[in-house]
Write a structure and sequence with these properties.
This protein is an alpha/beta fold. The protein has twelve helices and 18 strands. The strands form four sheets. Strands 1-15-14-18-16-17 form a six-stranded mixed β-sheet, with no helix packed on it. A five-stranded mixed β-sheet has the order 9-13-10-11-12, with helices on both faces. The longest helix has 44 residues. It is globular, with a radius of gyration of 25 Å. The structure holds iron/sulfur cluster (2 copies). The site of one iron/sulfur cluster has 16 residues, from helix 8 and helix 9.
Amino acid sequence: MRFRGGYNILLKGKPASAVTAMPEPKVLYLPLRSERFTFRDIRVKNGQKVTGGDVLAIDPDNYAVPLLAPRTGTVRLKAVEGHIVLEDAAQLEEHADIAAKEMLHVEKEMGAAGIKRYKLLSLGAWQFFYDAFTGALPDPLGTPQAVIVSTLSLEPFLARGDVQLHKRLLNLTRGLEHLQSLLEYQPIYLVMPNISSEFANLIRNQIRGYASVKMLEIPLKYPYDHFEILARRLNLKPGGGPVWAVRTEGVLAVDRALTLTKPCTVRIVSIGGMGVNLPTHMKVMPGYPIQKIKDKYVFERAARVINGGILTGKILPAEMLGVDTECRGITILREQEEREFLGFIRPGWDRHCYANCFLSSLRKKFREQLNTGIRGELRPCISCNYCEEVCPAGIMPYLIHKYLYADLIEEAEQARVDLCVECGLCSYVCPSKIDLRKQLIDAKALIEKEKEEIRQEQLRQEEARKQQEEARKQSEEKTE
Ligand code: SF4
Ligand code: SF4
């Protein structure tokens, strides 16, 4: 299968490659929720002193993935709703909160590979792993059919793989070796840009000697780095078992956890977008105060803060005070305050249009400014077909939109809404500014819910049938 659709989005506000180490904060606000995790099982007491690497809470629904203390400090549990606050935070030597007794147990049960998996989970490296098909956290004890390692991050403005890797090539190769040691014969696909840069060539040379690491070179077009798209491109099928997927930072975390047995509590997070002074990358730990980041980088009075990239990120709620454990980037956009009447046909040199109908199509490629208005207002679908052209999943978003508008959910299902990977390109190029991505996500959730209800009903019926059968047998036995 070849890549389909995709689009090279050029926007101003791209984070520079430099990494800034942010000043050490006195207080950390660790959110108890992130995109995939809810750390609802709190493991510390109010006022307790903790050291960097201690387990503060776990997510019992996700293989007990831990929320680790990134620094030494004093725990405050009820100071801020939905957060664990760490006061008097200080950077001392972190240690690994691994119970030796449990390690012995794991070793007895599963051998050396079991210990490695246990370490990855308890030292915070497993949080960087995804199931390529579902995006969920994979089972750390499971066996994948393949592993996809992506060095790319193509959504504007997320932290880039080349930045993560700067001066850490050795850590990448060691991380890959560790990953290989968790597998038997399953391949590791290393996803690289199909460009000839000095850095890309360096990685290629470094990887050449690894038999089970296969290179997959892809064009730099969003969203070809999407794990589900990559898995489909590699002809991996959901029925063949899980496909683990991990980005550069995850492999570096694997190296840190397994080579040094140290907790993975620091991240490189990007800050980009048109509302930022000097878009860049920052070295921060989960819980880092958002306000401190805003004070340093955001100059716009009316700015929208997005947790994640421009197309798939979510508006950061005002009540969230710290960087969460999964944050890969913060995007700041200038809030469009005045309504721009018929903005979509406003000609000009300064705006891109997928339709090439703006004067700007006469210019050479350039980076466009983007605010929250994105240009124009919501209008009906004009059947221009652009959403279908860019869709990497090969579905027809406009058709599904029309089915959903007419409440024809079964037809939407037949049109394979399930294949949508939620990349958001359709919404981005749509000249009518229809939020197709959201509509498709909602439809997928609705279909899934209905299927689940049917499954539950079938289970209930099956249970009732078994009970009746049991009762019948018992009454027959009594009569005999
Ligand atoms: S969000 Fe879904 S429908 Fe829209 S372009 Fe991406 S994969 Fe296609
Ligand atoms: S891009 Fe928008 S207007 Fe064009 S066909 Fe798709 S939904 Fe309709």
